[in-house]
Amino acid sequence: MDTLSNIRFVTLPPAEPDAGQIRRAEAREIEPAVRLILASPSAPADPQQVRDLVRLAHLPHSPSLGLMVGCGIDGLVSAVLPVVSPGRTMLLFVPAYYPTAEHQQITGRLVAEICRRAADADVHLAQALLDPSDSQLAALFSQWGFSRLAELIYLQRYFGRLPEDPPLPPPYRWQTYSPQSHDLFARTIERTYQLSLDCPALNGMRSMEDIVAGHKAVGEFDPSLWFLLCRGESPLGVLILSPVQHRDSLELVYLGLVPEARGRGLGDRMMRHAAYLAGRSRCRLTLAVDASNRPALRLYWRHGMQSIVRRVAMLRDLRALADRASVLSTGRPQPP
Fold it and tell me: What are the beta bridge partners of residue 175?
């Protein structure tokens, strides 16, 4: 993120005048567009952030979705990067710095067009993660049809040595994921959502198959790191971990207990198991948690997790866009 005096809203010679145009970025525009997304009046661009976003921009996308740019008279003015994940969700990366009303207006057009295209591609939910102090950007997202979902706290702990992980006492046992246990995992995850304090506004907005697909898409899916905590044949909790190789970390994707298993210390056993697996790989354990979920925060703090950053999650349900498009094109609403 360049200092204010060094920010350049990059001019690339177009084939023809395109002021006011919004379109897919050309290959030569990807890095300049990413730098627009990361532009700030107060700090230089983090080279790792630039590399990460450029890598995401180069991932395969559908013909209609990908990094989009907006042009002014002098060249590129704004850019928005959608990252679509299995589970029919999309994360938007947008600029946080808007020096003029033109930049806001063009970014709003980019967001609206990407959401329309995503809805046509059967993406159900669009999300963005904002700095909690950025009230201006939160207000813009509200104007663009998004609502506040939750404030997330990102936690981590580095394990340089192997923590203890005592064996589970009978009749408790771990069961790992397999195609044969897929339905059991899905049913158990669904039960752990009952009375959950973790982003409760999401409940009912996604199918269980979309939820499981989304969990599998985090990092590198490894079925040996998906666990059911069972008492005999009865699953009581779910622990899902995923390696993120380029960050040298193990992400705790999900930890949940069914209602009747809560308050019995089983969450601590699951956290010890996660810590042991992170320590075995000599890597960081990372996770994100809803800031209003105090029981979960107390659990993570007991196990030495440290807060590193907060983000506000904004959410928009895109299915209404798809329904409206169906009515306009056919005169009939989409079937449920």
Answer: 228
Q: In this structure, are 167 and 92 located in the same domain?
A: no
As a whole number, mean pLDDT of residues 156-178 equals 93
Residue 171, in any domain of the structure: yes
Start-end of H helices in the chain:
30-37, 47-57, 101-120, 135-143, 182-192, 208-216, 266-280, 294-302, 319-330
CB 14 within 8 A of CB 105: no
* CA dihedral (225, 88, 67, 134) positive or negative: negative
Span 278-333, pLDDT tens digits: 999 889 999 999 999 999 999 999 999 999 999 999 999 999 886 665 444 444 54
Looking at the domain assignment, is residue 166 inside a domain?
Answer: yes
Residues 129, 215: Cα–Cα separation, whole Å: 18
Q: What is the pLDDT of residues 79-97, one digit of tens each?
A: 999 999 999 999 999 999 8
257 inside domain? yes
Instruction: Tell me 316's DSSP state.
Output: E
Q: Are residues 88 and 186 in the same domain?
A: no
Residues 210 and 88 in one domain: no
Percent of the chain whose predicted confidence (pLDDT) is above 70: 90
Q: Which domain does 103 fall in, by range?
A: 4-124+318-330
Least Cα distance to 25 among 60, 69, 56, 59 occurs for 69
Helix (H, G, I), strand (E, B) or coil at 175: strand
Please answer whether residues 177 and 185 qualify as being in contact, where contact means their C-beta atoms are separated by less than 8 angstroms: yes
pLDDT tens across 100-144, in order?
899 999 999 999 999 999 999 999 999 999 999 999 999 999 999
Query: Do 115 and 163 share a domain, yes or no?
Result: no
Domain holding 83: CATH number?
Answer: 3.40.630
Q: Is the same domain home to 301 and 326? A: no
Sheet architecture: strand order including 68-72: 22-24, 68-72, 75-85, 89-93, 125-130, 306-317, 147-158, 284-290, 249-257, 234-244, 226-231, 172-176
